[in-house]
Fold these 4 entries.
Entry 1:
Amino acid sequence: MPSPFVWFDNFGPDRTATTEFLQNAFGWAPADIGPMTFLTAEGQDKPFAATTDAMEGLSGWVPYVEVDDLPKSVENALAQGATLIAENLTGPAGDASFIRDPGGAPLALWKRAAGM
């Protein structure tokens, strides 16, 4: 795996305003898919991030780390002092659990869906 960071979501109360800002400030192309708006950098064919509606306990940019075993990774993170925000949420490309590290930063642990 080249990098464990595979995705970024921006959670907030005004997805439209955030999406427009990112489009205008950085030229990122938006594609609304319903629950989120994918963002693709100029000249690229695949999105790298998304803006999404607010989620209780989360605000701002949240990086996603790809893991091989989601339940085991969550268990290990909690044993190392993380706190659980949300567990086993299914998204368009896999399942994720959201944690907060001991320093307070949010992080999504993500398991790719079979066949992706």
Entry 2:
Amino acid sequence: MIKLWAKTMKDHKITKQETYLAIEKYEDERFFVYLTDVCQLLDIETPVILPTHLKNFKKYRHVKFLPSDFMDAVDFDFLLIENIT
């Protein structure tokens, strides 16, 4: 089971948040699918995933996407995805 908490932050405040739940075992190969689903819930574009993002998510159970990780301009300081399983 996968349970992710996604939130956009601006000036140290949560501007949007969603909880994503999937009834399947977590797989690194499907991280893009999970991220895409979460971004659709938040109504934001999907950021570019780099190897360091995957490594941080596996090691620390969370990952931070900065505005530079998005193709277009965003109205928040960062997107934080946390594994809360």
Entry 3:
Amino acid sequence: MKHFDRLAGESARDYALKVLKANIVSLDLKPGTLISENEISAELGISRTPLREAIIDLSKASVIETYPQKGNFVALIDPKMVEEARFLRRVLDTAVIEAACESINPADLDILEDNVSLQEFYLEKGNAEKIYELDNMFHKAIYTAAQKDIIYDMSSTMMIHFDRVRTLSVETVKDLKIVNDHRGMLEAIKKHDKENAVLLVNKHLSRYRFDEDNIRKNFPDFFK
């Protein structure tokens, strides 16, 4: 399991939630994995109470499933939940990129340009894991540019259902067309071209559908 630094002022519950979410999305905690409260609380250096609170939060979004006398398990990937999360993501991302096209400032454009340039660099190196990390940072930066940071944070738990499939897609598909998607989205934002930006967002968020058969073939035990 990946570890992360605990931020100054970050509660034990929020820290546990951050670590669990990151490891579930990255598939370091694979679908179907038993969540050991004793082991994880010891690893994180926190008591079991805040960890349980984080588990309850994730169970409300059906990311973790609890079975009496058996324990808490990372939920298998449910195609219905993936589609609902993708729908929410599409609604939010299209509105947010329109807002970014209208009001983005030069500093935020520089952040996005640096991000996409790094993606292109890692594409040449074939580093899919780094591209996925930058992918998340790219989308969050657009929300920040549109002054919609709170919406991004509020939707992040529901997005786990979709983000796990995105992780599998990056691992399965080798040409990583998402980098070209991001370059196109950035150029549309620079030109204040809302119509093209929205088209690119829809194309980008539908990519996993093109890969679904291949993903299921490679990871059949991860799905309901």
Entry 4:
Amino acid sequence: MVSVSNLTKQYGDYRLNISMEIPNGRIVGLVGKNGAGKSTTIKAILGLIKADSGSVTVFGKDVASLTGDDKRRIGVALSDSGFSSYLSAGDVAKILAKMYPGVNEKDFLNKCHRYGLTDPNKQIKNYSTGMKAKLRVLIALSHNADLLIMDEPTAGLDIEARNEILDILRGYLSENENRSILITSHIATDLEGLCDEIYLIHNGEVLLHEETDVILSDYAVIKVDEEGYEALDKRYILKSHRESYGYRCLTNERGFYRENYPGLTMEKGGIDDLILLMTGEK
């Protein structure tokens, strides 16, 4: 679906150098702290910025050569819906029906109603944060896109609104097994329950690419004092950080350390642990 190969972009002292793949039928999570390069990567995939070198292909074509029909196969949900806040969901439905062949106004409004946007005449500026977020996602899905690009779609939402958006995305992918989603989020639990694989980027580079199931099943955080750290077999330690009690270590072989160090203090790893330990955060 998407291939990013040795993409580089220089901004002053900051340099992005990314390679990644978004296969057909997969939900790919892109994680990293602010400034890591997530937004730049998304803009490059969408053709909004030109890379200094490397390549980005979408649907097998260089992103710069995508036709209008190709671009209509992409759905995007960024921080803004792209529609004036003085419009209503009814207005948006009319515009979408003119923009995309196959979009039915009534069907779009029915979906809006299903997810709590019950008044088609209410202006977007009067929506709650959750309503605006759901509208952005529904707009991105309205024309049956093959590729969805979602930048922080659940940011600032309560758990109920977040779960609704995640359910929308799961349902959308289940309708067509060839559809793909690229999603960024600072909420690890959203990604753990949604994504098939995770890319962790930091300072413009991919630090780690892993299947989500593997992260949840095989990764762990080990806590040891200095003596225990010196005695530890470090073959499967990805990162270690000095702490007041000794060391905090990230491993991708939880079973090895459980079997060979039965008294070891070990906590199940997750995406938050991955980000914090791999990027050196406290």
